[in-house]
């Protein structure tokens, strides 16, 4: 059955503003990630220093999860998103100063913590603006376009960062470009309408504050989707180790690092563009499971590769498979979540995703330090395959999930227990 609402595309002003804004923000963030990883590894020559980046960034996100989600449901999300990107701008400027003054590692880690603060407030605000402005039937294609913009930036951002480092011999210029990108994002957010939430008659309580957890607990399909993403990326993530592979395994320097870091994003961009133009998946849950199985196989291939071209292909495939999960999971969240809860649910969801990326960075760094980079990556890929099987056994309904636009929001029970 076809929807009465036509597919939406980049010509829609709301989709365009968010897609371009996210593109600028992700571009700046990816440049920061590449520059920080290279700078710290140059200073310390330690895989531990790369793993610690994830933990330092994750800490503020965990602390801000509940208050940020509640704040997003009580104020104009556009304004909160602008403030969050303002914090990211301050962090980028701080890293510029650290690069110029050759500051010690703890100063760099302090700025990474500030990046975590920014992302903690951005997660429940930026991602919940479009659902206020579009129809549910438009979510899948809108998310595919937004993901395309983000992945375009994620593809070129690392390459730009690596080029700037190689060309200037310093990370200063890379951080300056990253700071400018955040200002562009803020300007584009300002073009969106300000939507204040309706006054709430509900008494503030612990149940209300933790409604995001309650909602996810009571929706097994969504719980299955984010659990799959959490454990697969924690166990199979290799991004944090790319400086090590670029320098010690593949011997390709900072420019090669930029391309390695860009390869997953190129894969994600390609798949996001495909999903933006094809009909929504009829069996999105089954497709998501298959994609993560492919993600695990590609991770194993990267760990075993000693050839730059083959490594690029494997990383490209990890990004392509991950893009399927991003679009399915994001659209599922937006379709089933009532708007008054979207900030809190999005915040909890980001903890799963943020934890998977950032804790995965620590896991891979620690594993590489203890057993070597290749065993750490290959073992992680094998573990991903095990996780896919476990999720299929625990939540068989995920594989049977039908078209997402046929689902409806369901409010949780917020009564005190």
CATH homologous superfamily (4th level) name: MFS general substrate transporter like domains
Give the C-level CATH assignment.
Mainly Alpha
Give the count of helical stretches.
15
Order of helices and strands: HHHHHHHHHHHHHHH
Task: Tell me the number of structural domains.
Answer: 1
* CATH domain topology: Growth Hormone, Chain: A
Give start-end ranges of low-pLDDT stretches: 1-5
Strand content: under 5%
Distance between the termini: 42 Å
Number of strands: 0
Shape: globular
Helical content class: over 70%
Description:
- The chain is mainly alpha-helical.
- The chain has a single domain, classed as Growth Hormone, Chain: A, CATH 1.20.1250.20.
- It has helices at 13-44, 47-72, 77-101, 105-126, 139-168, 172-190, 206-209, 211-217, 220-236, 242-249, 253-277, 284-304, 308-336, 342-371, 373-394.
- The radius of gyration is 20 Å and the shape is globular.
- The chain starts with 12 loop residues before the first helix and ends in a 23-residue tail after the last helix.
- Residues 1-5 have low confidence and may be disordered.
Quick structural overview:
This protein is mostly helical. 76% of the residues lie in helices and 0% in strands.
List keywords for this structure.
single chain; 417 residues; mainly alpha; Growth Hormone, Chain: A; disordered N terminus
Layout of strands and helices, then pairs:
Elements: H1 13-44, H2 47-72, H3 77-101, H4 105-126, H5 139-168, H6 172-190, H7 206-209, H8 211-217, H9 220-236, H10 242-249, H11 253-277, H12 284-304, H13 308-336, H14 342-371, H15 373-394
Helix pairs in contact: 1-2, 1-3, 1-5, 1-6, 2-4, 2-14, 3-4, 3-6, 4-14, 5-11, 5-13, 8-14, 9-12, 9-13, 9-14, 9-15, 10-11, 11-13, 12-13, 12-15, 14-15
